[in-house]
Amino acid sequence: MKTVVCPIFAALALTAALYHCLNHAFFKCLLFLGTGAVLHATSERNLGRLGGLLRRMPWVGWAALVGVLASSGLPPLNGFVSEWLLLQSFLFTLGLPSTFVNMLVPVVAGGVALVAALAGYTMVKFYGVIFLGQPREERLAQAHDAGAWERVGLLWLACGCVLLGLLPAQVIVLIDNVTHALVGAGLAATVRANGWLLLAPVSLERASYSPLIFLFVVAASLLLVYAMVRRLYHGRLRRAAPWDCGFPRLTPRMQDTAEGFGQPIRQVFEPFFRMQRELPSAFDAMPRYRVVVQDHFWFWIYTPIARLVENVARLIGLLQRGRIATYLLYSFATLLLMLLWVRR
Amino acid sequence: MGAALNWSGLLSQLLEIALAVLGAPLLTGWVNQCRAWLQNKSAPPLLLPYRTLHKLFNKEAVIATHASPLFRATPYVVFGCMALACAIVPSLSTDLPLASAADAIALVGLFAVARVFIALGAFDIGTAFGTLGARREMLVGFLAEPALLMVLFTSFLISGSTSLATIVENLAGRELAIYPALAFAGVAFTMVSLAENARVPVDNPATHLELTMIHEAMILEYSGRHLALIEWAASLKLFAYSCIGLALFFPWGVARAGAPLDLFLALPVLIVKLALGGALLALIETASAKMRIFRVPEFLAGAFLLAVIGMLVHLLLGA
Amino acid sequence: MSTLASQLINLFAAILLLLAFAMLSQRRVLSLVHLFTLQGAALVASTSVMAYATDQPHLYFSAALTLVLKVLLLPWLLHRLIQRLAVRWDVEPLLNIPTTMLVGIVLVIFAFTLAAPISALSASVARSTLGIALACVLLSFMMMITRAKAIPQVIGFLALENGLLFAATSATYGMPMVVELGIALDVLVGMVILGVFMFQIREQFDSLDISHLEKLKED
Predict the structure, then answer these.
(1) Helix or strand or coil: residue A210?
(2) Which residues of B touch A127 (CB under 8 A)?
(3) Model confidence pLDDT, tens digit, residues A9-21
(4) How do residues B138-190 score in pLDDT, each as one tens digit?
(5) Extents of the domains making up chain A
(6) In chain B, which among 184-203 make CB contacts under 8 A with chain C?
(7) What pairing do the DSSP bridges indicate for beta strands A273-278 and B61-64?
(8) Which chains have at least 3 CB atom pairs separated by less than 8 Å from chain A?
(9) Which residue from A252, B116, B256, C185 has the least number of CB within 10 angstroms?
(10) ipTM, 2 decimals?
(11) Contact A169, A191 (CB under 8 A)
């Protein structure tokens, strides 16, 4: 077996990856269950016909919020812990022996940060279009909330996300067995030495993160501000129609659609996609906008391979005649060839 | 907590939070004054932001009939995040107990939490302007956050740690030398800071035209105490970014752990540095024109790539 | 003393790289000329510092030549050309600007990785800057490829020569004077010919868009 050059660095990176797999399982399942509940309640998958479901389906909505925040990698939930560990492992590049990898790793770290930020963008779109705003169809008013067992399913996953985010030290101790088996080192020793409150995978001076204290301080300042504002001033609230800059006829069709929210990304990443657009003209009585976005790699890599596989399969198909005698002939010929070969 | 919870640490932590929360509107007022002077207008009073906050707190909060609890909770969440962000940046002293709870990467995460919540709050009412602002803010944030992370990475690689307190102690303790990597990172940080704080050339904070707004469009539906908290949180964000910039690139004068009396020197030094920084911000705002929204990704991509080059230069030159 | 000198040279190298990148992302032709002038100035400064630190008087001549040519004469020629051709803006480059910058980063990594073993062989005090010089050359080359108008291509060519000069200075204490004078003359003559060429393009196609040259192919 190859010896690992820097076992502690390898253990850190491996722990980050495994932790992320675990996190991904929890928040992805939670989000899928959430969308399943929405589909079940509204029989709609099209984002253009959803909206405002937080008021009709509060259990699903708030659980999905936990999933959305976790998947965007926001502290103090679980997505952030694995992202934090991954970025920490990138910072050890100066200790690596190869110059090329040394230089490539910071750029890859930049790529990871970019992807995490893009995930945040997508999740805001997902949650905002489905659960917030106003309903885009009238029959959404009949949407029912999740049943009792559905709630259990959503809740335990949401609790998982929260706990994985708040108690990272314990999870790393559990992952330690795996990293020991693969690279011969583990983080459990250092993590245990720094206590259960703080996560310091290498050393305290290097980096540390405490999700519990983080959550406590934010919650405490939130409550303190709330209380002080009520005490020093007042807590009066009045409900009225939305301001909307004085525009009187606000309809649900005026809020962003999913395609509209994603338009900046399409514009910025245009060279990376293959896009076909149909734009309405100014004189259309019923204007129609259509965009088809496809991946270049689909056409460059996947389609040629599929075509190749198809051609090879067709060639092999020539061998299948449907007559039993032919198949028996194949087996017989292979047997003869093998005997010939073994004889030499 | 990691660092020993001693009295001097607690004192410097509380003093920093108090200074940030109470002094951030003053920094905003100073920037507005400098901008007015540079544009040859008569300047608004320096304490105007405090009067605005007081006026807003006194008013009744009016919200849409179908606003959800998320909309009502967002101003408090955003304020809490910004307060924590100011608490972990070593502006006065590096002896901060909370700095062991959240390092610089968690700081970037804090800004991301605030951004996501404000964007969701803008979505909540379902107006065209709110979602427009949310979409633009997420676009700016999606590029600015990695750029900020890359800038911090350069400092991490130089100081060998992700804790801002350790970085400041490390950089302040070195002898004066020219670090080209930090020069690149400094330019990139200025660009990111302009984008994230909604300043010209990315976004005009004083505009009244909704179609040109990014940050302001998201908060159009807030009023009363909610709006006051969001405006205060925006000042706190500017304060935090200024302190991060000072900590990374001009860290001298910050009190060290174990020398609590240095706090008395650190406070005037910080005030002078922030005043100069605010004047520089006003100068940049006056000398630039606001760019089209689709030039902003190019601007931020430039900042991101500058920061990456800074890191590569550091790895190549060892400087 | 030598640490200050090597720090200054590192700083100027970093500024050169920054300017090469900035030129890649500029749209306006006038700003390109200004950036090119700044690059020439940074080159002059770095050569002078090298001359002072390593006690090589012929580098002073090299710096003086660069000053006269790259900072004074060529920018003046370019300004005149721009005024007479009345060029202000560039059309959209071949790839959009963020993609160009991303490709630029890949080239920078490539240059740095390539230069690492080579610079270990050099005995010069500024050997670690060879990677930066190579990166400048590659970035200017890319600028020549992705620009759609004639003048930014010419500026890319001149910036390429800047990068080469910096590479020579940092790796081997400059080139023999004969070679350097020859290159300087070549660049000057090249500029004059390209200037004439640009007028011809303008007359033929009524625009400086390079893509019009494709009409000249055999059909």
Answers:
(1) coil
(2) 120, 123
(3) 888 889 999 999 9
(4) 999 988 999 999 999 888 888 878 888 888 888 887 776 777 888 889 999 99
(5) 7-219, 255-296, 299-343
(6) 184, 187
(7) unpaired
(8) B, C
(9) C185
(10) 0.91
(11) yes
